[in-house]
Design a protein that fits this description.
Length: 197
Amino acid sequence: MGNIDGYLLVDKPAGRSSASITRQLGRILDSRAGHLGTLDPLATGLLVVCIGKALKLVPYLQKGAKRYLAEVSFGRSTVSYDAEGEVTATCEVPDDLQTLVRKGLKRFSGEVIQLPPPYSAVKVDGTRLLKLARRGADVELPERKVTFYDITIQNWRPDAVVLEVSCSAGTYIRSLAHDLGKAIKVPAHLASLRRLE
C-alpha cells in the first residue's frame, strides 16, 4: 500500500502489547506507524495509531487527557500493581470498604504526585524500570506530577470497585489502584483496565 496518512482507532485486546499492534499495522499498511500512548498488555480499549505523516502530530496529541474504566480489587497487593504480579500483601476486606474507598478517593483530585509502578516503561538513567525490576535492582522510583480531572464510582463488588477515571497523560492507573489501597490501609491492585477516550 504505502503513502497512507491518518489515524486508526484500535480496540486493543487483552494480552497484546501496544507496540506489537502498532508494528503489525505498520507492516500491513507498508507505512511508518506509532501510537498515542501505551496500554499495558492486560489493558483493553482505545489505542490511537498514527500512520505516515500523521506521526508528526504525535508530540502534540500525546499530551491530551485520557479516560479509563478501572476495576480496583482489594485484599491483595502485588509487585506490579496489577493482577499478574507476585503478591506482596494480603488482608481481609473490611465490611466498611465502600465508606473507606469514598473517603480515600478524596486524595486523588487535581494535581498529585505519583510514583510509577516498579514494573513500567518509565526510564531511569536510560533503562526502563521494568528491566531494572526484573534484575532485582533497588531503584528509587521517579516522582511525577499527574492530574486527576474526575474519578467516578461506577459499580461495586464485595471486594472491588469500578471507577471511571479522567486524567492527564502519563498517569498510571495501576499506581492509582495501589495508592488507593495504601490510603485506606487495605492492599489493592488493578484487576482490569479499559481505555475509553
